[in-house]
Amino acid sequence: MSDNDRQPETQRPAAQGPDPVQTLLLVLVVALVLGGTGYLCLAHPSLTAPIAAVGGVGAALAAAFGIAIHKR
Question: What is the pTM (predicted TM-score) of this model?
Answer without folding.
Answer: 0.53
